[in-house]
Amino acid sequence: MRAMVFTAPGQPLEYRDLPVPTPQPEEVLIRVEACAVCRTDLHIIDGELPAPNLPLIPGHQIVGTIERLGARVTRWTVGQRVGVPWLGWTCGECRFCRDGRENLCDQAQFTGYTRPGGFAEYTIADQRFCFALPTDYDATAVAPLLCAGLIGYRALRLAGTGERLGIYGFGAAAHLMTQVARWQGREVFAFTRPGDTEGQRFARELGAVWAGSSTELPPVPLDAAIIFAPVGDLVPYALRAVEKGGVVVCGGIHMSQIPAFAYELLWGERVLRSVANLTREDGEAFLQLAPQIPVRTTVQIFPLTELNTALNALRQGKLQGAAVIQISQG
Ligand SMILES: [Zn+2]
Ligand SMILES: [Zn+2]
3-class DSSP state for residue 181? Predict the structure, then answer.
């Protein structure tokens, strides 16, 4: 099979021919149709996350068709379309798994990081960690829901139910969560890199009531803010923008250093927290909700051989919405 392979930090991914993997008893073999690109893929290939399983096929927003079943697979049949998210395996036994926080599992494995990912013609996944997908979307349109959507939705839930929501970093997750928040009856305030007027226009098109630079204060105090950009400098700005009792959620897996700030910014029962990974419950809830709203994805499609181009576009903030690698036609 053709695959894009990560061999060392800072190197472009290599286009290679590899054997098609064989599913273990609890796994399915999937013929990949599309796999969306995530900021986390950049953190992995830049060496910002420890101990990737090298050589590695990244990619954790996989849409494909089941081609073969492992000996003990009962949940799926050959020919079904499934989605494979970031959370690829959990132990089911640790204290986090037992009390509904499998996203924090001590032994969790992650797709496209410690398990094989989807930037290839085929991949394998544990049967328990595949999702049935809404039928309203084609493969390239639904792929960004699998991380930008799922983890974005977990971040939105953790931000509480306040009416005025700020979103810092207007990329793939933000363009989806703006639609969800609007449907929930909230007002969205979008913060982009200073000078990114295109990004601000895109945010307004999607229904943000205000869009401006991340260094500006919004016209009114916010109830909550989500920071999707991996930029620690944004934390004091977001704390300054939220009202007393407000919540600031850091939505990324990696962030640059957070600068020291005056206690006064946290005072007034403001809360600063992160969101880590996802649970299968998050995934099922969001995949059921998305077609009802309906959440529309804005995508830029690239062939597998252009994955490095797509990653560079994401790095430079040149994408609107999500980059998706199209690998085969359903
Ligand atoms: Zn566990
Ligand atoms: Zn992701």
Answer: helix
Cα 109 to ligand 1 centre (Å): 10
Tell me the Ramachandran region of residue 118: left when phi exceeds 0, alpha when psi lies from -120 to 50, beta otherwise: alpha
Structure tokens at 98: 């037992």
Encode pLDDT of 174-223 as tens digits. 999 999 999 999 999 999 999 999 999 999 999 999 999 999 999 999 99
Which ranges of the chain have pLDDT less than 70?
A: 330
Check if the beta carbon of residue 235 is closer than 8 Å to that of residue 272: yes
CA distance 249 to 47: 24
How far is the C-alpha of 121 from the C-alpha of 110, rounded, in Å?
A: 19
Residues with CB under 5 A from ligand 2 (ion): 38, 40, 147
pLDDT at 229: 96
Ligand 1 centre distance from Cα of residue 94 (Å) = 4
Residue 330 pLDDT: 65
Residue 278 CA to ligand 1 centre (angstroms):
13
From the centroid of its chain, how far is CA 180?
15
- What's the pLDDT at 52? 87
Distance CA 138, CA 28 (A): 21
Gap from CA of 41 to ligand 2 centroid (Å): 7
Ligand number nearest to the C-alpha of 94: 1
The number of the ligand nearest the C-alpha atom of 277 reads 2
Q: What percent of the residues of the chain are helix, what percent strand, and what percent coil, each to the nearest 5?
A: 25, 30, 45
Exposure b/e, 112-142, CB count within 10 A at least 16 = b:
bbbbbbbbbbbbbbbbebbbebbeebebbbb
Q: What is the pLDDT of residue 173?
A: 96
Which pLDDT score, from 0 to 100, does residue 329 have? Answer: 81
Instruction: Tell me what pLDDT residue 34 has.
Output: 98
For residue 60, how far is its CA from the centre of ligand 2 (angstroms)? 6
Structure tokens at 233: 């400098």
Instruction: Say how far apart CA 324 and CA 303 lie, in whole Å.
Output: 9
Calculate how far, in angstroms, residue 276's C-alpha sits from the geometric centre of ligand 1.
14
